[in-house]
Amino acid sequence: MFRYLWMLALLLHFGLDANAQTSCLFTISGTAVDVEAKPLAGVAVRNATNSSITYTDRYGNFRLKKQCAGRQLLTFSLLGYDTQEKTLSLPTSESLHITMKISIVHVQDVTITGIQSEHITSSKHHLSADTRQELRAKPLAEMLSQIAGVTQLNTGSTISKPVINGLHSNRVLVLNHGVRQEGQQWGAEHAPEIDPFTADRLEVIKGAEGVRYGADALGGVVISAANPIDPSKITGRVDLLGQSNGRGGVGNVRLEGGITSLPNLAWRIQASTKKIGNLKTAEYILGNTGAQELNLSGLLQYQNGNHDLEFFYSHFGTNLGVFYGAHVSTLDDILANIERGRPSTTYNFTYDIESPRQRVDHDLSKIKWGYDLTGNTKIETQFAFQRNRRKEYDLRRVLSDDTPMADMNLMTQTLDIAIKSGHHRIGIAGMLQVNNNVPGTGTTPIIPNFENHNLGIYAITQQHWGKFHGEIGARYDYRYFDVAGFRYDYSSIDENGVVRQYLLTDNRHFHNWSGSAGLAYHASSAWTLKTNLGLAWRAPSANELYSDGLHHGSGTYEVGDPNLASERGYKWVNSISFKRERISITTDLYAQYIRDYIYAMPNPDSVRQTIRGTFPVFNYRQQDAFFYGVDLQLDWEFGAAWSYALKGALVRARDLDNNTYFPFIPADRITQSIKWQYGEKPEDYFRLAHVFVDRQHRFDPATDYTSPPPSYHLFNAYASRRFTIYKQDIQANLGIENLFNVLYRDYMDRMRYFSHQMGRNITLGFTFQF
């Protein structure tokens, strides 16, 4: 009897167990997106009923396996977004589609990389979609200058570099698709070799970000990044744009999607081209200022289980003319041109680009692998290779003009390994960089051949206490610099007036700590306060140490100092943000002390005569510096269809050793615009903008060739319209820059000694999306 009861009990037990196992084999799946239907990665999906958890992938997809039958309560959470809840009963065939709304309290903090929210205490600003659309054919620096506190350092009207709070070149790091962009960025007329058409997001971080991104990030960081690709469909866009000034055009094609037979693979291809002729000021044509570009890029993304793979390649190729008026033959000519402020020669329009000119090709390739160790721990490895080939041409007396005066081949390899767990991150970064001056130019290179070895280790952690959010990090970097090249000895000149040259060999060791500490406080749903203190450093670059020759692109003669020490920068940024439904105000107050600040100082008492002409001399030197200022941005919707925007920036820079001012510091400026939304679609609007740039009153007359130019006002007008023709979505943009054709010069233009800025320019562009 007991034997039968025991067997019955076993049968009941296994039957119930089998039934339980059968009832817990369901899968809950779905997608999480933001209000613009863009997929969100790293959303925590929790089942409150059984405490199981998973995270969305880069496409916003999630799968919660081994769920039991019955009523289930799911929560969806991500820092910077309101938590969402969803109740459902299993079994069900429903695929969830969750829309995450941005939390007003955390609206400024959201930059999601994998599972960690970064820059929560930094001053971070992004370029709006409307602005990117209006300026999509412009160089990167000109687009970024629409952000308060960001300006440009120009070499004429075709070459520009971003300036953040008064700092530029090697003090501003540019991340191109997660790779630290490495070209010959030490040159004031060496623009970033990045095609803005490859970017879906353009962001600027104003703090000293030496911990997260490595040495050199004293001024800030520019991030050019792309959105994840949706492999479930094929989409694309075509951009066509023409402009009146330069009689040029720009074209861009982009296509992306997936492969049905490989559902985990996503791809994107893109190409753009540009051709512009000689530009024109309000009164005269600028000779030899044309530009030509051809750019290509490709992206592959693959995800399988816990593995994430990404391949990216881009080619940037440009041919730029350098204004004829910057290259003159005698001392009397250069002084006369500076006094005149405009060229003495009349030029005609042409698309031809002749010497002096620049030819730059930049290739970037990367492979990135990520692996989820656990639900919130991930390891990422990225290797990147870059090749930058820069050729600068000048008028030749002996060799052909097709032989470059400078031919520099820079190759950079970087390897980054990071482990991210929750709110903590540790990593190691290495870089090997080799610069070779290609022989056969018949000239002595302005910078020597060199090898640059870098190794850094870092750690960052975040803590969250209700309305308070903190971040602290530290980093150590070591750099070994080995050079070999020629240098002039002007103390030794033979009877024929020839300056003796000698072989230069040298090696330098640089190492230092970087650190950061920040705090964000959400006082209410409207007010957010941030404070961030960053310590960063920068080793002197090859041109600052060893240059001694003509810099063809800028038309200057530069002399370096091999005894320069590393810069050390301490930057404190305080941000105050107020946001309501119809108004937002953001103020950034910053101060930065830079020990041994390196700069090129114009020497008004000296010019250098060479067989190619006469050029102003710039000497590299260093002094202790103090930068401080304020940036303001206001956006106000004062009616159902009207809005107003105001941006202002003040920056001050003092030479503490000599109690004077540094050259090439941006003057005070204000930009304001009024916008009328005349249609139901956000893309249907008119916008009128006004730009005021003050004269730079804070300058040292002893360190420049002429006084800063007067202040100026510019007016720009923009119109946009989105419509559909034969089911084809089209957006049209019309722009008129320098509406009243003002003749002006800008203090931040290195060609201001010889010419004015570009006059009126009318642009008309169409974007076809499919």
From TrEMBL:
Q: Where is the signal peptide?
A: 1-20
Tell me which residues make up the TonB-dependent receptor-like beta-barrel domain. 298-739
Keyword annotations for this protein, in alphabetical order, are: Cell outer membrane, Membrane, Receptor, Signal, TonB box, Transmembrane, Transmembrane beta strand, Transport
Transmembrane regions listed in the UniProt entry: none
Q: Would the keyword ATP-binding turn up in this protein's UniProt record?
A: no
Q: Does the keyword Signal apply?
A: yes
Please report the stretch or stretches of sequence annotated as the TonB-dependent receptor plug domain.
121-221
By its UniProt entry, which InterPro entries does this protein fall under?
Answer: Beta-barrel_TonB (IPR000531), Beta-barrel_TonB_sf (IPR036942), CarboxyPept-like_regulatory (IPR008969), Plug_dom (IPR012910), Plug_dom_sf (IPR037066), TonB-dep_rcpt-like (IPR039426), TonB_rcpt_CS (IPR010917)
Bilayer topology reads: Multi-pass membrane protein
Instruction: Look up the domain of life of the source.
Output: Bacteria
**Which cell locations does it reside in?**
Cell outer membrane
PANTHER family xref list: TONB-DEPENDENT OUTER MEMBRANE RECEPTOR, TONB-DEPENDENT RECEPTOR NMB0964-RELATED
By sequence similarity, the record places it as follows: Belongs to the TonB-dependent receptor family.
In Swiss-Prot or TrEMBL terms, this protein is called TonB-dependent receptor
Which species is this record about?
A: Sphingobacterium populi
